[in-house]
Predict the 3D structure of the following.
Amino acid sequence: MLEHVELFFKSIFIDNMVFAVFLGMCSYLAVSKKVSTAVGLGAAVIFVLAVTVPLNWLLDQYLLRDGALVWLGPEYADYNLSFLSFILFIATIATMVQLVEIVVEKFSPSLYNSLGIFLPLIAVNCAILGGSLFMQAREIPSLGLAFNYGVSSGIGWFLAILAIAAIREKIRYSNVPAPLRGLGITFIITGLMGIGFQSFGGMLTGDNEPPEGADTTTAKTIEEKEVEKEIKDDEKAVSYNEIINE
């Protein structure tokens, strides 16, 4: 349970798709002019990541990685289909995006028209593919954690585009200098928000204890020297007081 909670918050704040690894910036900047549109696209991204990351985890575990085909028989143990990762991952993502596009067009035509070309472009959104590739690179051990990672990564991207959309709606009526209006001030705000999200890293993972097995010889040597210096200073002070008393 603790592992799920840690992965959830780490994916949202420390490894945020937009502010930490800068993935999905094109749709993040283009569809963040209105909160309503940002919410629709963010929900679509959460759904696609929540479905595709676990599906691609299954593909990676039972088809793509080295020795994954051993379940077919011992003669297949030496097969390595990892070179097909990009093709199969993108095929899975494209299938789910088409499903999302059909559902949105059926039940919310206004949102479908607002999102425009950026809804089908989720299929080639680097944040979506990045979720599956990061899952593969980090060797997430279980299907449940893969689903957790997909959902939390989607929520992180959703919070990023929702926050910038809300800010952009407000600054539309602010006195922004002419050279910075539009994308200029948006990039500045994104950078400041990125710094803010990066600060969560120390809160969730930072500590003052040295890693297990780390070499503490240098630290001990420094402490011993400081103690010896204090002792010598005390001895000098005592000697000086004795001389004065005499």
User: Anything to note?
Assistant: The mean pLDDT is 82. The chain has ten helices and no strands. The radius of gyration is 27 Å.
